[in-house]
Design goal:
Tachylectin-2, Chain A
Length: about 350
């Protein structure tokens, strides 16, 4: 009798635990409070249409819904989407036709709906100081506007070694992050420079300033081993100035084999959401912290089961960038393109 009662109690507790609702991720707005950050845009590509421009939106930074019936929103764009808002309140998006293309293309928009060509930049990769063996390759250019200096910084990665049959990873390990400065994204200052002093590979680098510090969000492009456990993970380096020198990166924010990090502030402005892709197009992860120095924890999501997911994105999205937008801009995007609220399992 006692054993039967004990079994029944255990089963009841297990059932209660299974139905228990875990707390929402940090950073959400409490009922009755007003959001500091009203809405978000995710400009991304898809697994089926890599390198083209698609939009998804969110009002809480956690649950994302596709626009335009999951169709392209701008046919001319090619690249890994990255958008920045300039001092003129206009938006700029950067891309390139392929890693082998010599040109970096920039478009401008007043409303995130209509894009016009702004400029084309062709970096001279043969004159980079201390990087004479740089290959003619340009990967994933990204933009950031630095208000204190009144300048944009554009970053991208360029390798200096080909992969081989015996060591295909040599190509990726040789990636180095380069940058160039510009007042207007039409004229650029001098030749590109190396951003970091370290001797290991980095890609997908974006810059953000919080308080008095600059943070370089990056993917450690070394291959993970027992002796380099941070390989293929998302990390952050820190500096007192825009162009460095940057500290060695912090410990990993993500698991291994993650890339294309994108960072947004939470709706209440008291937390940071760092999204990253498990490639190739497998899933998306989300890590959360109350400051960029960490510590970070991972939220549960992208399983497409509503009783487990604390965040959700449309299936088959690939990397790009997330930015904050106003409620007015969100409404205009939804009105123009239409929104698809997907059913969850």
């Amino acid at each position: 009798m006692l054993n039967n009662r004990l079994k029944a109690a255990v089963m009841a507790l297990a059932g209660t635990a299974a139905m228990a609702q875990q707390p929402d991720p940090a950073g959400q707005v409490k009922d009755g409070d007003k959001a500091v950050n009203q809405a978000y845009l995710f400009a991304h590509m898809t697994h089926q249409d890599y390198g083209r421009l698609y939009y998804s939106v969110s009002t809480d930074g956690l649950h994302w819904y596709p626009l335009n019936n999951k169709k392209r929103v701008f046919e001319d764009y090619k690249g890994h989407p990255d958008i920045v808002k300039g001092p003129d309140n206009k938006y700029y998006i950067v891309g390139n036709d392929s890693d082998a293309s010599p040109d970096i293309n920039i478009w401008v928009s007043e409303d995130l709906i209509t894009w016009k060509k702004h400029s084309t930049y062709t970096p001279d990769l043969s004159k980079i100081p201390d990087y004479a063996d740089a290959m003619q390759r340009i990967g994933a250019p990204k933009l950031y506007y630095d208000a204190p200096s009144g300048k944009f910084i554009m970053t991208w990665h360029t390798p200096h070694k080909d992969g081989t049959k015996e060591d295909p990873e040599r190509y990726w390990a040789s990636q180095r992050t380069l940058y160039v400065l510009s007042k207007d994204l039409k004229t650029f200052e001098g030749v590109p420079q190396k951003l970091f002093e370290w001797s290991f590979g980095t890609i997908d680098v974006s810059i953000r300033k919080v308080g008095d510090s600059y943070y370089a969000i990056l993917k450690d492009e070394s291959y993970p081993t027992l002796y380099w456990t941070t390989g293929k993970t998302i990390r952050i380096a820190k500096s007192a100035s825009l162009t460095g020198p940057y500290s060695l990166p912090q410990e990993s924010i993500s698991p291994n084999f993650r890339e294309a990090p994108t960072l947004i502030p939470s709706p209440n402005g008291k937390a940071w959401y760092m999204y990253y892709e498990q490639y190739p197009g497998v899933s998306y992860g989300l890590s959360i912290a109350d400051n960029l120095n960490g510590p970070w924890y991972q939220a549960s999501g992208y399983t497409f089961f509503s009783d487990w997911d604390k965040y959700s994105l449309p299936q088959h999205v690939r990397h790009g960038c997330m930015i904050t937008i106003s409620q007015k801009e969100y409404d205009a995007l939804v009105k123009k393109f239409g929104i698809e609220k997907e059913e969850k399992k």
